[in-house]
Amino acid sequence: MNLVVFEPLKGISCAECRKGPLPHLVRVSGVPRCLDCSQLGHLVYLPRGDAALTRRAR
Q1: Nearest in space to 44 (alpha carbons), one of 28, 27, 14, 24
Q2: Would you tell me how many other CB atoms lie within 10 Å of the CB of residue 34?
Q3: pLDDT-based confidence at 58, cuts 50/70/90?
Q4: pLDDT (tens digit, 9 = 90+) per residue, 19-39?
């Protein structure tokens, strides 16, 4: 199963913990969940564009 993290355009709340609006979310079985409820809260989002930071993260 591949996980895809979305940046929603409108305010969406987590279906499990009701936090919101979420800056990033994961859809699990079509239901929006925050990264903490999806067990992905420990990950850090790296925006594109900083090649030096991306190389160091690998």
Answers
A1: 24
A2: 22
A3: low
A4: 889 889 998 888 999 999 999
